[in-house]
């Protein structure tokens, strides 16, 4: 048992070193978007803010969602790296339980388990608030994204979405603002 604890703590420290947001205790179970309609969610979304992740290091981040098969959405995530190159990854999102269509699971690699992608709030045409959380025994890891259909989002909307995250214990002061300036992000459009 002690060896398992040491291994768990070592993994936790390794993840924490990669800027993931780890917290003590179990994941919260926030309310998700009522009557979520994936067909209205399709298309391009610009990342406005995110919690730090080890797998996302660029700016100008976008997500593009298209229908792939019945009940499956193709996910294309792209970002501009510091050297000017565009880094992209393709995955798929599926609803885990049809009774809760706003709780999706996203996979990017066949050999890794899917990650939670819960739409907490969206108006489909302006903003989306996404939250994901995974339990690791005594700790949990949180991910969150504020997305917009445009490269900017009104401060009032961001504050409202921060309020939702704060209400479930997310440290919104850890959210990173994503650069979406046209001059800097122009290579993303090519």
Automatic annotation (TrEMBL):
<dbReference type="InterPro" id="IPR000566">
    <property type="entry name" value="Lipocln_cytosolic_FA-bd_dom"/>
</dbReference>
<dbReference type="InterPro" id="IPR022271">
    <property type="entry name" value="Lipocalin_ApoD"/>
</dbReference>
<feature type="domain" description="Lipocalin/cytosolic fatty-acid binding">
    <location>
        <begin position="37"/>
        <end position="179"/>
    </location>
</feature>
<comment type="similarity">
    <text>Belongs to the calycin superfamily. Lipocalin family.</text>
</comment>
<dbReference type="InterPro" id="IPR002969">
    <property type="entry name" value="ApolipopD"/>
</dbReference>
<keyword id="KW-0873">Pyrrolidone carboxylic acid</keyword>
<keyword id="KW-1015">Disulfide bond</keyword>
<dbReference type="GO" id="GO:0006950">
    <property type="term" value="P:response to stress"/>
</dbReference>
<dbReference type="InterPro" id="IPR026222">
    <property type="entry name" value="ApoD_vertbrte"/>
</dbReference>
<dbReference type="GO" id="GO:0007420">
    <property type="term" value="P:brain development"/>
</dbReference>
<keyword id="KW-0813">Transport</keyword>
<dbReference type="GO" id="GO:0005576">
    <property type="term" value="C:extracellular region"/>
</dbReference>
<dbReference type="GO" id="GO:0006869">
    <property type="term" value="P:lipid transport"/>
</dbReference>
<feature type="signal peptide">
    <location>
        <begin position="1"/>
        <end position="19"/>
    </location>
</feature>
<dbReference type="InterPro" id="IPR022272">
    <property type="entry name" value="Lipocalin_CS"/>
</dbReference>
<dbReference type="GO" id="GO:0042246">
    <property type="term" value="P:tissue regeneration"/>
</dbReference>
<dbReference type="Pfam" id="PF08212">
    <property type="entry name" value="Lipocalin_2"/>
</dbReference>
<dbReference type="GO" id="GO:0008289">
    <property type="term" value="F:lipid binding"/>
</dbReference>
<keyword id="KW-0732">Signal</keyword>
<protein>
    <recommendedName>
        <fullName>Apolipoprotein D</fullName>
    </recommendedName>
</protein>
<dbReference type="InterPro" id="IPR012674">
    <property type="entry name" value="Calycin"/>
</dbReference>
<keyword id="KW-0446">Lipid-binding</keyword>
<keyword id="KW-0325">Glycoprotein</keyword>
<keyword id="KW-0964">Secreted</keyword>
């Amino acid at each position: 048992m002690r060896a398992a604890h040491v291994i768990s703590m070592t993994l936790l420290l390794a993840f924490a070193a990669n800027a993931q947001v780890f917290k003590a205790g179990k994941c919260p179970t926030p309310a998700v978007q009522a009557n979520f309609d994936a067909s209205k969610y399709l298309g391009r979304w610009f990342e406005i803010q995110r919690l730090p992740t080890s797998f996302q290091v660029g700016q100008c981040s976008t997500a593009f969602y298209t229908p792939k098969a019945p009940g499956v959405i193709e996910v294309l995530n792209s970002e501009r790296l510091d050297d000017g190159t565009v880094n992209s990854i393709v995955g798929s999102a599926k609803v885990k339980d049809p009774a809760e269509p706003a709780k999706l699971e996203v996979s990017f690699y066949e050999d890794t388990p899917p990650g939670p992608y819960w739409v907490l709030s969206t108006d489909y045409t302006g903003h989306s608030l996404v939250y994901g959380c995974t339990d690791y025994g005594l700790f949990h890891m949180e991910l969150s994204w504020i997305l917009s259909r445009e490269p900017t989002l009104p401060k009032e909307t961001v504050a409202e979405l921060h309020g939702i995250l704060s209400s479930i214990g997310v440290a919104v002061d850890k959210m990173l603002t994503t650069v979406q300036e046209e001059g800097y992000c122009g290579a993303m459009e090519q």
